[in-house]
């Protein structure tokens, strides 16, 4: 599938463990994961000892590691639930990070072959992105593709790719009301492409299956936003949607690209959407304010790094969103705190 | 494929005839084309009588019809070559227009079934578009798809779709230098999706295989832009790239959508890319000015119809682009003249 030559020493695969027994998950991915260094972060709310099969090269982080790093940092910062993966992002020293939810196994492509999600993310991240003009034949750097007639030659060299967002077969990444309304709905459409999401276009990034260039955008991928009653099911969370919009704004500002599409993973069933309907749809409601905010946000020319950008975003959140809802005030504070943690982790 | 119920009386299929013998082309499309009213426009530079097989319901327009309508209009307006199709757009009284180049035949989808391109364009045009936020699972109105987690509910009703841009298998729509550089390159990747091109994102629209809502965006799809040495091969033309950017600006301003993706058509070989390299790459060079112009163009709030918008675009072309190159001055004049022709054709 991919012809990218991967330097394995540049990649960390980060796994947030929300279940104790990772055996079947790890075995499904063994041909891929066994080639790389893994960072496994145990959900600090998950009691017990993880079961991890032999034959993998990994560092494991647990509650005590997290508490040690957090130290006296804001109590509002939480690495529990799906947010535990972000602790792995913070600890990594590699150029690239690939993260895949522990309820996902390799998907099959349209010819029935298993998809090497890591190789595809690395292809996406190591070939240029083209955010300033849309190529109708999608990613021109995919094998067999090119720029179509009318595409300005001056834009064909593209820019570095900061984030690669993969997709999901079987259980799509729907919100609780949609999943509850259409309990039978499964995504079985294999769309064989990658595209650059155009500059200034916002999108709902899912954290289920992503890769990113940690050196370029790492500080934006930290768990600043947490719902009051966040659960341990994907449809009950929006932390990744928030960080995704932060990354997109950062990439747009720094002239980096965000790609979406391949690779797919196969998502297994987890949870009961009807049950989750009993909770408040806090995340769903908040999007009505979050999306227009990020769509209109413009950073100053003095913001030259992802760290600078996140600090500016935090300041804007505080001014524009926080007065309406304390959840945004906390997010702004957390962003400031997390950038400090990020810097500290880099200098140790 | 499509479950859209099509009102056949609302659709004109427009065919620009660049070759005298349309027999094999029409026969390939018979199951589809025979259901609709066709408008066939003979390239006014093409001498002789068209061969059109029996069993189709069509109006044929030739050089004398074109000359009659043009009358004393600007001599600069030309409906020759690929531009002949636009005369059909001008003459149509239907709500929707589908246009397919006469060197294209039905494509097969990934399961080997013939693609009904007209049905897919009608699905694209009659379901909402979502230009204000990108849905990572592509067109949420495709069968089996939906909005993903994080997509604001307030944006889920979408907006009307103005333009549907289909794609090409086999011979991709490349420019002459790319085709000459990679003579063996063929597009064989069937990407099974449709997406809304986000608002404020420009794209190179190809006129090879499109559908549009004539009532909403018709005045923008007229042949205002013509290269000095335009040939009769697709890679030698950019008239559709120009009109495509006009339509996109119009749609963005009027809060309409532009979709891209399915349906595919199969493009047969025509012409010699190496030969075309001997010509000037005028179109390729002009894109360097055309794209930034359209990207930064913003229309006034008083522009309430596509006609208003095109008139404003013409004025901006005259001020911003024309001083650098007389080809733009002519384009601006043509746009003004074509809007007059459009209005006249509507009132007759």
Automatic annotation (TrEMBL), chains A, B:
Any idea what this protein is called? UDP-arabinopyranose mutase 5
What family is it from?
Belongs to the RGP family.
Q: InterPro entries annotated for this entry? A: RGP_fam
Keywords linked to the UniProt accession: Cell wall biogenesis/degradation, Golgi apparatus
GO terms under cellular component: cytosol; Golgi apparatus; plasmodesma
Any one GO BP annotation for this protein = cell wall organization
Reply yes or no: does the keyword Lyase apply: no
Please state where this protein is localized.
Answer: Golgi apparatus
MF GO annotations: UDP-arabinopyranose mutase activity
């Amino acid at each position: 599938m991919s012809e990218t030559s991967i330097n394995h020493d540049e990649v960390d695969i980060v796994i947030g463990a929300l279940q104790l027994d990772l055996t079947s998950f790890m075995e499904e991915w063994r041909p891929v994961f066994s080639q790389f260094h893994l960072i496994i972060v145990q959900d600090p709310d998950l009691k017990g000892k993880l079961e991890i099969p032999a034959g993998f090269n990994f560092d494991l982080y647990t509650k005590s590691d997290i508490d040690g790093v957090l130290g006296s940092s804001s109590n509002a910062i939480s690495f529990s639930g799906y947010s535990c993966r972000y602790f792995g992002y913070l600890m990594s020293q590699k150029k690239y990070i690939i993260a895949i939810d522990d309820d996902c196994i390799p998907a099959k492509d349209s010819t029935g072959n298993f998809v090497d999600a890591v190789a595809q993310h690395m292809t996406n991240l190591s070939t240029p992105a083209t955010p300033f003009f849309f190529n109708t034949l999608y990613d021109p750097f995919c094998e067999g593709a090119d720029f179509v007639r009318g595409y300005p030659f001056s834009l064909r060299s593209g820019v570095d790719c900061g984030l690669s967002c993969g997709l999901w077969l079987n259980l799509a990444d729907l919100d609780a009301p949609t999943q509850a309304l259409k309990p039978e709905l499964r995504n079985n459409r294999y769309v064989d492409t990658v595209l650059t999401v155009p500059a200034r276009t916002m999108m709902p990034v899912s954290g289920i299956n992503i890769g990113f260039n940690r050196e370029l955008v790492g500080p934006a991928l930290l768990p600043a936003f947490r719902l009051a009653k966040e659960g341990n099911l994907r449809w009950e969370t929006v932390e990744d949607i928030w960080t995704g919009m932060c990354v997109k704004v950062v990439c747009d500002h720094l002239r980096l690209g965000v790609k979406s599409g391949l690779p797919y993973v196969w998502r297994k069933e987890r949870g009961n959407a009807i049950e989750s309907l009993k909770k408040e749809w806090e995340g769903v409601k908040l999007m009505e304010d979050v999306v227009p905010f990020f769509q209109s946000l413009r950073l100053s020319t003095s913001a030259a790094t992802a760290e600078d950008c996140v600090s500016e975003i935090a300041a804007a959140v505080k001014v524009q969103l926080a007065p309406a809802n304390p959840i945004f005030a906390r997010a702004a504070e957390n962003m400031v705190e997390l950038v400090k943690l990020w810097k500290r982790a880099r200098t140790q």
